[in-house]
Amino acid sequence: MMRIRKITLLVALVLVSSLIATGFCFGAETFPTKPIQVIVPFAAGGSNDVLARAVANTWTKYSPQPMLVITKPGAGGILGVEYVVRSKPDGYTIYLGQGSSPDLTIPHFQKMPYDPFKDLLPVARLSVHSVIICVSGKSSIKSMKDLVAYANAGNRVTAAASVATGVVDITLKAMAKRANFPITVVPFTGGADAVTALAGGHLTMGGGHPSEVMPHIKSGRFRAIGVALDKRDPTLPNIPTLKEQGIDVITWGSVKGVAAPAATPPEVVEYIASTLKKVSEDKDFKKAMAAVYQPVMYQNTKDWTIFLHKAYKDYGDLIKELNLKI
Q1: Are 258 and 95 in contact (CB under 8 A)?
Q2: Which of 25, 41, 277, 281 has its CA 20 to 30 A from that of 3?
Q3: Tens of pLDDT along 121-170?
């Protein structure tokens, strides 16, 4: 009898060990077992929202659970990011758009309700693209030189930007300061709203990302007059950079990555990052991104973290140098 009990106990231990090893013991589950909420902290229709939906469409090829894209605009993106920060760190609520104003620019202007670097874990970078300076297609302004002359003639220059103290806002203010003319930047709740206002003829000019402004440029509603990168944007190779036109302003453009709440398990972060890599290499995803003029520029967790810290410092240096204020 004792021998039978020992054998039974041994079999039970082997079974338990096997279950532990396969991850099914005591309620442990393999991530993901339910849909993943992807929070975009800006208005629907903007470049981050467009990217998120393209990612979600391809994600299901490589993961058993779908992504649900949810836009939570407000306070320049802070409300949506804070929602992610306060969420359970289990990988089921993540932030797409990391590298935007709530991470790289707004913290240089005001106290945040969270720490962008301590309360979020960078997961992966997906894309980087330029800030394109545009005017109405009906405008007499055809270059940065024309814009400066227009301002110096006493005309009021108003400009549309996606959010206050965001990348576009800073680029426009830096451009005006370096060119020595006054500008009034009008912030909105996201790139889509800013572009709509400019298309309505309510402002002199505006800045936007390729996915937001290219349809208007192609239709003739907008005219591109400058690009705020260190080199020309391949989607608009005939449009010179600001620096080429004598205005010494170069920015990182719009950086788009994914983050998770701090304390998210490393294996979950790795799963999301590696799956996003598969998405970024997918032919259909690349085709979808090319259609909306967003270059695919994937970075793994380590490289993305390094990039974020450098971009944050560079924007901080530019803000201090130009003495930009809210």
Answers
A1: yes
A2: 25
A3: 999 999 988 899 999 999 999 999 999 999 999 999 999 998 888 889 99
